[in-house]
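Support request from a user on the community tier.

User writes: "When I paste my structure tokens into the form, the page sometimes reloads and wipes my input. The last time it worked, I copied everything first. Here is what I submitted, just in case something in the input itself triggers the reload:"
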């Protein structure tokens, strides 16, 4: 049964190693989040002989909510790679404040448009350097008011990557350090700054078992608009808390997950996590830590994809999501 489910979710339209377009795969499956309920997730992925990939994905909810993503990657020789994506979404958000000390929820509709470009150069086996550029505009529509923000972000990154693969890794180490300048359209006289630190480790255990961990930290300067600050996303970290529920210009999280292959295309996972968001670094405190723990089921789709079902429990919050590939 699970083999049939996996084949249904990923239909291979084309695979031929002698043509320029080497593969073409279509995905169509139902997905779920606590805020949206059930919605339809569809996508198409194309691979070429020049090792370029292009993917398009559309999430559409029955109440008119949507998320559209177009993403591509091109390899330039053995050491250089460029990636680019364009994203647009309109989603309802239960907002509880600038940090996790707030408890009075407000519902608003968040509309956002993002275009980003990244170049990465690998050297000395596992080390890499890179540059990134993005343009972002966001709007929060409350019942009686609306907030807007538009920004251009320019930055650089340095890191180390020894993972056996980018998605659904089973061994290796990944370190990414980024720093960006944020040029604000609403405040042309001041420049905001963003720093991101991400450390991930993957350790094989017994047969079919893997222990994965992630340390994640984000820091924004005080003049960063709250719409661009760090936030819970309900999918990748602090999975018990839905997208946009808590925000802060400082975010720290630590999660650890045990992944186990059962048989065929089936996997299970269990994880625990702690994290915190605050307006400033000196506002972080033990009393405001957000816990998150849960378990999930995974189904392999094709050779590299994985359908993910997660149920997470946190502080006064639960979240069930159906998504694609591992959280990190």
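"...and here is what came back when it finally went through:"
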């Amino acid at each position: 049964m699970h083999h049939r489910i996996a084949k249904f979710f990923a239909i291979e339209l084309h695979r031929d190693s002698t043509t320029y377009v080497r593969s073409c795969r279509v995905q169509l499956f139902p997905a779920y989040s606590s805020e949206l309920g059930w919605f339809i997730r569809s996508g198409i992925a194309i691979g070429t002989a020049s090792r370029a990939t292009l993917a398009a994905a559309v999430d559409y909810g029955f109440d008119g909510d949507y998320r559209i993503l177009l993403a591509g990657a091109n390899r330039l020789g053995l050491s250089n790679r460029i990636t680019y994506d364009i994203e647009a979404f309109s989603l309802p958000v239960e907002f509880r404040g600038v940090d996790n000390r707030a408890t009075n929820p407000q519902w608003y509709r968040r509309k956002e448009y993002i275009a980003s470009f990244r170049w990465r150069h690998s050297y000395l086996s596992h080390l890499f350097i890179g540059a990134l550029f993005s343009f972002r505009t966001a709007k929060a529509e409350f019942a009686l008011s609306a907030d807007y923000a538009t920004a251009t972000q320019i930055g650089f990154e340095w890191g180390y990557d020894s993972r056996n693969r980018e998605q659904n890794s089973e061994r290796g180490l990944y370190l990414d350090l980024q720093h960006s300048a944020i040029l604000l359209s609403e405040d042309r006289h001041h420049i905001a700054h963003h720093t991101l630190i991400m450390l991930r480790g993957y350790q094989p255990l017994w047969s079919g078992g893997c222990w994965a961990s992630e340390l994640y930290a984000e820091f924004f300067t005080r003049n960063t608009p709250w719409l661009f600050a760090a936030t819970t996303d309900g999918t990748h970290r602090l999975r018990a808390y839905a997208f946009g529920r808590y925000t802060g210009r400082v975010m720290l999280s630590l999660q650890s997950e045990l992944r186990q292959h059962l048989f065929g295309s089936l996997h299970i996972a269990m994880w625990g996590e702690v994290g915190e968001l605050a307006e400033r670094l000196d506002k972080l405190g033990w009393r405001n830590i957000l816990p998150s723990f849960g378990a999930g089921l995974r189904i392999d789709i094709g050779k590299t994809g994985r359908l993910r079902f997660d149920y997470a429990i946190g502080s006064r919050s639960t979240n069930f999501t159906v998504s694609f590939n591992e959280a990190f």
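Agent notes: The reload is a front-end session timeout and is unrelated to the input. The longest helix spans residues 2-9. Helices lie at 2-9. Escalated to web team.
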